[in-house]
Amino acid sequence: MREVRRAIVEHGMLKETKKLVLAVSGGPDSVALFAVFLLLKEEFDLSLTLAHFNHGLRGKESDADEKFVQRLAEENRIPCMVGKTGAGQLGPGRGLSLEDAARRLRFRFLDETFERLGADRIALGHTADDQAETVMMRLLRGAGATGLRGILPVREVRYIRPLLNIWRHQILKFLSERNLGFCEDSSNRDLRFLRNRMRHQLLPLLSEQYNPRIKERLVSLANILTEEDRYLDRVLDGELAGLVVDRKSGKVVFARGPFLALDRAMRFRALRWALKQVGGSLDGIGYRHLIQALDVIEGPRPSKRIIFPRGLILERVYERFAVKKAGELEKAIPSTYSYPLRFPGATRIPEAGLILVADIKKPEEVKLPLTCSMVACLDLARLGPSLRVRNIRPGDRFQPLGMRGRKKLQDLLVDAKVPRCQRGVVPVVAAGKEIVWVVGHRIAEQFKVTPATRDILRLEALP
To answer: Which of residues 280 and 64 earns the better pLDDT score?
Structure first.
């Protein structure tokens, strides 16, 4: 009791809580949870409701568990809500294991019960043994530091786990001392399930042959990483104001420059935060997806998109990139823009999130290569006295460097795989009616630097 009370106070589990839902399966952990809160009910001035979900997977045994919980509630004059269905409706054909399907159904029922009752919290009976098993499972699956936090004592405000520092042997002793019965779930011995193999095979082997305190070490690891993760979340919160330029309409838009100023570890964290904000969870999104995203953000191509699992996409347009849901309707192409290009000097292009910096150089002052996607070196004498920077217009054509014929800018952007919704923001530098440079892509053949060039106009696109 002392450990449970300390966890409740330390994590603020019952702060502003009057109505508490107890998730009770009938197993020893959940029965202990119920018994503990019967003892704490008056101290914390709580109104309790039991919630039991019958998956119907074990036939008569599942029904017996349901009756046991209902009887437990009746004997203690506590309301009891019961849900019942089959996990098969979320399993085969939906890419979910039976365990995942059952878990999702159970949490859906708990959330619905929570809303129906207008409750303040839902208490779950996870123990330190569950924590050790979860950390080991995630370690084997290749989780990072955030995943290795394991089960959190408080999740999404509403879910609390007061028994997370209590071991199962302590639970059984507590029940025995109070002569409290519970249900045995035969599926907990089914070695087809990964958690059961972890519990009955791997952890006992590690305890016997490598470290007799392996479970305690795994729980300590989770506790350490939880504290470190909280600190890094606070650091990220302080950075977000300078990173995020738009959080409307179910998407998160970042400024690329401030994002690249972050340490790479914080870039991973910011991406995970954005994906969770938009998608609701990180299910199905792993390390390789984050690496692909960073390749797009950090790479030389100014416009590119990748598709994540669960209908999410990351889309980069020059010095901004967005995480959003695939299929989301985009805003119309930006209104026409056109600015005189200052040279030498700097020209802001707010629509593209860029500044074009122009310098006049002698050939010997310019290092090779002369041109890359965000830098263009041009023969100043061929350009004329005035240049403009604008977005593309219908019918725009030019002769790309190295080509003989002229090409539609539309076709150039299609070949470069620039998404349709992004093409209207692509800036071009124009000398009268002639396109000089498609920023981020190609310069025109007739304006290239040659051995006869005496002065070079060097343009660089910066965030």
So the answer is: 64
